[in-house]
Structure to design on (258 residues):
């Protein structure tokens, strides 16, 4: 069993080879994202598979344009599976924006399918990280916090803590860490977050129980302030440095497939 297959098995994920077989174009990589990557899946969590495909040249220059983004959803053994892939060019453009999602997908250790191009994209990832990525995590945390206040559900509260801690870690170290239990080992965070992870394992849309709203709000505000401070102190560049290298990779990959 490969190390990739072993990690998928340890994460409690089903056989996903049939999932990627549904992608009609050449697949450059596919990884698992969502709650399984973040370390707080429930028994009934969706399986989110994300990746990159390569459109053939005729679908780029001809009248019949291929899909830059392809989405497939279906059920397998009672689980809802969700496969979303972007064409390589679109994914490269997303990497050059302050988009934490695509970096988390690219660098996910839960690898379903890989290739040489995937490895090259991973090598280039540090060259697209900037201190502006703090904006992504700040905005996502705000959205999830508002959803938690509206619904009282565990899921958006865990997302709030996860994205704030991921953003702080990225600003301080330049590395992407999306796994919440690991982040709790690396940074100071409220002790009850581990209890929330345990509670969510039993119910995808369960409510956050027995929490003092004032304490939770204070803890979230403290992490928001820590993210602001980490951004201001960050030595990360303001703009990506890997633009030319990504351009070359896209061109070389497309020409090799023509």
């Amino acid at each position: 069993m490969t190390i990739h297959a072993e990690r998928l098995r340890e994460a409690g994920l089903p056989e996903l080879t049939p999932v990627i077989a549904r992608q009609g174009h050449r697949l450059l990589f596919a990884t698992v994202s969502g709650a399984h990557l973040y370390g707080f899946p429930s028994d009934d969590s969706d399986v989110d598979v994300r990746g990159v495909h390569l459109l053939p040249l005729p679908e780029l220059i001809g009248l019949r344009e291929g899909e830059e983004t392809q989405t497939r959803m279906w059920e397998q053994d009672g689980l809802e599976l969700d496969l979303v892939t972007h064409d390589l060019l679109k994914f490269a453009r997303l990497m050059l924006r302050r988009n934490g999602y695509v970096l988390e997908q690219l660098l996910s250790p839960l690898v379903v399918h890989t290739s040489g191009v995937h490895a090259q994209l991973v090598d280039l990832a540090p060259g697209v990280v900037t201190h502006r990525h703090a904006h992504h995590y700040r905005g996502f945390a705000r959205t999830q916090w508002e959803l938690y206040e509206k619904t009282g559900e565990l899921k958006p509260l865990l997302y709030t803590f996860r994205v704030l801690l991921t953003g702080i870690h990225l600003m301080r170290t330049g590395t992407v860490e999306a796994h919440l239990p690991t982040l709790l080992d690396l940074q100071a965070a409220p002790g009850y977050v581990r209890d929330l992870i345990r509670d969510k394992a039993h119910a995808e849309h369960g409510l956050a129980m027995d929490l003092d709203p004032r304490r939770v709000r204070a803890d979230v505000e403290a992490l928001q302030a820590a993210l602001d401070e980490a951004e201001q102190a960050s030595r990360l560049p303001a703009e990506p440095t890997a633009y030319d290298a990504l351009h070359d990779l896209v061109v070389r990959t497309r020409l090799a497939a023509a």
Q: What stands out?
A: The domain at 3-129+240-257 is CATH 3.30.460.10 (Beta Polymerase; domain 2). The first strand starts at residue 26 and ends at 33. Residues 165 and 183 are 7 Å apart (CA to CA). The chain has 13 helices and five strands.
